[in-house]
Amino acid sequence: MAKLEYSLDQIDLQILRIMQDNARTNNADIARELGMAPSAILERVKKLEQKNVILQYNARINPAALDQKMLSFIFIKTQDIIGVQKVGLLLAEVPDVLEVHDIAGEDGYLIKVRTNDSAGLVDLMRNSLSKIEGIISTRTTIVLETVKEDNKLVIPSKEA
Amino acid sequence: MAKLEYSLDQIDLQILRIMQDNARTNNADIARELGMAPSAILERVKKLEQKNVILQYNARINPAALDQKMLSFIFIKTQDIIGVQKVGLLLAEVPDVLEVHDIAGEDGYLIKVRTNDSAGLVDLMRNSLSKIEGIISTRTTIVLETVKEDNKLVIPSKEA
DNA sequence: CTGTTAAATGAATATTATTCAGTTTTATGT
DNA sequence: ACATAAAACTGAATAATATTCATTTAACAG
């Protein structure tokens, strides 16, 4: 039974909390904050990486700085359940597609897409999506303004 | 005219590319890779932070490790346009809400939510969403499986 | 108890970050 | 084109951090 595949103690959670907020916090600082030796923190962090608890460290970049002013969500309806796992993988390969989620209920996917502008979106739909077999229809929702987008998980105080 | 508020040259883009992939890449490594002095890289990175090109460095944590198995998107229809900016801010304050987007067309928001399980989702809707004034209705889409979720922007090779 | 394993410490060393003076490059006004 | 000012870069010196590892401590099963 792989019930607790990742058993995280209080210290691990604290490390995660710090790292989720600032992935560039150095070991020395974390060690100071938690009152431990830097070497101990280093070991734990490496273990968290190996156990795939920490998936990646990434810099969040301001989309506006790269002129990617347009954000959209697109619902994609697919043919049927059989042989459609491939659609998800193909969608994931499209560069402007940031997220691909297999959704319940309507045989399909919800994807999150960032483009320069509406022309870029049209372009993506014409040139990329239309080339993927198994897509029946799409419904696009355009984002006017993003209020929050940090994707930070809620880290509990206790964990079994 | 604030046309080029962030003018990024080729080197900046390379730095962003590296940092987006691994926010813990150290200056020395970046400097080696780009054939420049570490001090120059340091300066540029700091400037990118100050110019708000780099918004934050965060560790992406495996939701499964924190037992947050459930991901949902919820469309939220709001009363009207007047006085509804507040709804977005209130939504953003709910811990399990990872993203809040003001969407076009239907007077409302699309939010991304992560909960432990379906009970957690119900809980959120009953205890948090229902308390927010101005929400007329909600439509929830449940994610069965996430194929991609890296939120990495496409960084162009050239930029004016 | 005793042996075994996992985790932490603390010191030594390697590497990196950071500062800064001096130089080069770039941009700009004349 | 030229002079000048501002911005960016280099390289060396110093401060700080990362990393390694032998030893100690803690946790725990038999």
Automatic annotation (TrEMBL), chains A, B:
CDD domains hit by this protein: HTH_ARSR (cd00090)
GO MF assignments: sequence-specific DNA binding
SUPFAM superfamilies: Dimeric alpha+beta barrel, Winged helix' DNA-binding domain
Domain HTH asnC-type: 8-69
Listed SMART domains: HTH_ASNC (SM00344)
KW DNA-binding (keyword) present: yes
One GO cellular component term noted in the UniProt record for this chain: cytosol
PROSITE patterns (UniProt xref): HTH_ASNC_2 (PS50956)
Pfam families: AsnC_trans_reg (PF01037), HTH_24 (PF13412)
Keyword vocabulary terms for this entry: DNA-binding, Transcription, Transcription regulation
One of the protein's GO biological processes: regulation of DNA-templated transcription
Protein name, UniProt field: Winged helix-turn-helix transcriptional regulator
Organism this protein belongs to: Sphingobacterium humi
